[in-house]
């Protein structure tokens, strides 16, 4: 599943160092899945049914119901996240989310608990003008806006992340992400 | 008037009968006490022209994207100074106190100009910071439904906003006020057109 390049010891060691160095502790890995696994995964979720999840002062997005996201609870994925973050991770709680125009998540005191989390971007074509950027607030008050590419994993130690409001430029386009807390 | 020092921004007169009526409207408004006062200033066009000349700074976070001036107390523009003087005056706080039934301190306000352009917005929040009691927004130009930029008020369910029940489109020279509380959930809807949305706003304490 994981692009074999990221599993090479020398590469992984380098990534671990970078993860710790970044503020917040984080890493963005493009071409995260090998191409065969990525194609299969896209096929697996292609029939997902989405329902709107909305608490106006916290979030607004569409979440897939009964989607097979077992990939994010495989030993391979959890071990990789453990190795990269240096934290012992036993399981993940993934959810497949679609951000259409008007969707967003906010940093909210109820959910802003520090922990390891990931975003896996599945959006084939996305224009920065639409919004929807995965953004991290650092504790020194600045923010880190992550570039947006499909088949990209963002792993971070932070509870202060948000998905920027998707504006009307997006029209009928949607941003597709798997988000998960790692425990 | 050629001498800018002579500019005076004044509110129109409010007879007691009108104040009583406004008070009723404020108290009975849903989903929380709020009120729109039409034709608030006598000379709002002067202020509109002045605010357009101020420097606006882009503000962007998870909650919002719009542009704002610095605190207008520090503006060097005589028209704006005159408007700040009006909004800090005993007359203004007395009027808002009379309308809202809430005791307010004269001069205790924060005030800035805001500019929303296409795709700008301010998501749902309650405005509760420190001891803010009344929020006020003076709209300097009008927007139509197709332009977006309406002020939406939400009914609460528990500690969260739940359902939009009022959508107020900016009307030129209207002063919108609402009571700041744990249920004063509101948002500025995204501006959808190239029309710019200018306002002056702040809080009374």
Write up this protein.
The complex is a heterodimer of chains A (183) and B (205). Chain A has 183 residues and is α+β, with helices and mostly antiparallel strands. Chain A has one domain (4-182): Sandwich (Jelly Rolls). Chain A is built from 3 helices and 11 strands; from the N terminus they run αβαββαββββββββ. In chain A, the strands form 2 sheets. In chain A, strands 1, 2, 3, 4, 5, 6, 9 and 11 form an 8-stranded antiparallel β-sheet that branches. In chain A, strands 8-7-10 form a 3-stranded antiparallel β-sheet, with no helix packed on it. Chain A is globular, with a radius of gyration of 16 Å. The two termini of chain A are 21 Å apart. Chain B has helices at 16-28, 44-52, 78-87, 90-100; strands at residues 34-37, 57-60, 64-68, 109-116, 121-125, 134-139, 151-157, 160-168, 174-179, 186-188, 197-204. Chain B has 205 residues and is α+β, with helices and mostly antiparallel strands. Chain B contains 4 helices and 11 strands; from the N terminus they run H-E-H-E-E-H-H-E-E-E-E-E-E-E-E. Chain B has one domain (12-204): q2cbj1_9rhob like domain (Jelly Rolls, Sandwich). In chain B, helix 1 (16-28) packs across helix 4. The model of chain B has no long low-confidence stretch (mean pLDDT 94). The A-B interface holds A 55-58, 102, 104-107, 131, 135, 137, 143, 162, 164-165, 167-169 and B 61-63, 65, 119, 121, 123-126, 148, 154, 160-162, 185, 187, 190, 192.
Low-confidence stretches of chain B: none
Any idea how many domains of chain B? 1
Discrete helix count of chain B: 4
End-to-end distance of chain B: 35 Å
Strand content of chain B: 25-35%
CATH architecture of chain A: Sandwich
**Class of secondary structure makeup of chain A:** alpha+beta
Gap from first CA to last CA of chain A? 21 Å
> Measured on Cα atoms, how large is the radius of gyration of chain B?
16 Å
- So, the CATH homologous superfamily of chain B? q2cbj1_9rhob like domain
The rounded Rg of chain A comes to: 16 Å
Q: How many structural domains in the coordinates of chain A?
A: 1
Oligomeric form of this entry? heterodimer
Greatest interface by residues involved: A-B, 19 and 19 residues
Q: Which fold name fills CATH's third level, the topology of chain A?
A: Jelly Rolls
Number of helices of chain A: 3
Fraction of helical residues of chain B: 10-25%
**Class of secondary structure makeup of chain B:** alpha+beta
């Amino acid at each position: 599943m994981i692009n074999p390049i990221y599993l090479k010891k020398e590469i992984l060691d380098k990534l671990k160092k970078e993860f710790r160095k970044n503020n917040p502790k984080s890493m963005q890995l493009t071409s995260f899945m090998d191409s065969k696994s990525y194609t299969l995964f896209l096929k697996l979720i292609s029939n997902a049914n989405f329902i709107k999840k909305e608490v106006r002062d916290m979030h607004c997005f569409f979440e897939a119901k009964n989607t097979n996201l077992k990939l994010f609870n495989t030993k391979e994925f959890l071990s990789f996240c453990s190795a990269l973050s240096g934290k012992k991770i036993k399981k993940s709680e993934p959810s497949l989310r679609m951000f259409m125009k008007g969707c967003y998540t906010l940093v909210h005191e109820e959910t802003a608990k520090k922990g390891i989390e990931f975003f896996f971007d599945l959006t084939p074509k996305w224009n920065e003008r639409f919004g929807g950027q995965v953004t991290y607030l650092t504790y020194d008050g600045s923010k880190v806006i992550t570039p947006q590419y499909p088949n990209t994993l963002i792993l971070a130690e932070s509870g202060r992340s948000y998905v920027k409001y998707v504006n009307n430029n997006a029209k009928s386009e949607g941003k597709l992400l798997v988000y998960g807390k790692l425990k | 008037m050629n001498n800018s020092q002579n500019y005076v921004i004044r509110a129109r007169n409010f007879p007691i009968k009108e104040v009583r009526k406004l008070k009723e409207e404020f108290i009975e408004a849903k989903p929380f006490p709020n009120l729109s006062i039409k034709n608030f200033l006598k000379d709002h066009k002067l202020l509109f022209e002045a605010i357009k000349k101020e420097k606006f700074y882009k503000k962007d976070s998870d909650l919002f994207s719009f542009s704002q001036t610095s605190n207008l107390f520090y503006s060097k523009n005589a028209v704006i100074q005159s408007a700040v003087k009006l909004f800090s005056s005993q007359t203004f706080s007395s009027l808002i106190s009379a309308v809202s039934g809430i005791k307010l301190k004269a001069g205790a306000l924060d005030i800035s100009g805001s500019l929303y352009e296409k795709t700008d917005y301010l998501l749902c929040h309650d405005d509760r910071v420190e001891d803010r009691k009344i929020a006020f927004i003076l709209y300097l130009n009008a927007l139509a439904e197709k332009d977006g930029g309406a002020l939406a008020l939400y009914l609460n369910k528990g500690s969260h906003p739940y359902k939009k029940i009022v959508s107020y489109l900016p009307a030129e020279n209207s002063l919108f006020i609402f009571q700041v509380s744990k249920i004063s959930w509101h948002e500025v809807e995204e501006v959808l057109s190239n029309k710019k949305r200018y306002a002056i706003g702040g809080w009374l304490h």
